[in-house]
Amino acid sequence: MKKIEAIIKPFKLDEVKEALQEIGLQGITVVEARGFGRQKGHTELYRGAEYVVDFLPKVKLEVIVESSMVEKTVEAIMNAAQTGRIGDGKIFISPIEEVIRIRTGERGSSAI
How far apart are CA 52 and CA 42, in angstroms? Predict the structure, then answer.
């Protein structure tokens, strides 16, 4: 099993969610996040004063999938989240040792 974490632009969330549902994923965790990479933020004017906004709004998605679904999941996220402009985000893939469903005590693949 693998954990796929994706940092994407907030306005792309619905498209990514639909793409993941289309490939058969049932569970997803979404967290509002703030950060920057090569974008390095931007400047804004407020009441005549200019200031730098370092941390831009992002959305972090977390999905646990069978190892056989990793490529299909990554491809769905990339196709749905890509705008072609800087700041589209990143995808991280990590191994998962065990998954346990709290309600039933199921373990492993059946707990996903």
Answer: 6
* Residue entry with tokens 């965790």: 29
Tell me the pLDDT band of 36, cut-offs 50, 70 and 90: confident
Sketch the domain layout of the chain as residue ranges.
Answer: 2-111
Q: Are 110 and 27 in contact (CB under 8 A)?
A: no
Q: What is the pTM of this model?
A: 0.84
For the residues of 26-42, what is the DSSP string, one character each? ---EEEEEEE-STT--E
Summarised one tens digit per residue, pLDDT across range 2-11 is 999 999 999 9
Strand spans (E) along the chain: 2-8, 29-35, 42-46, 49-53, 56-65, 90-95
Phi/psi of residue 49, each to 5°?
Answer: -105, 140
Angle made by CA atoms 19, 7, 39, in degrees to the nearest 5? 125
Q: Domain 2-111 falls in which CATH fold? A: Alpha-Beta Plaits (3.30.70)
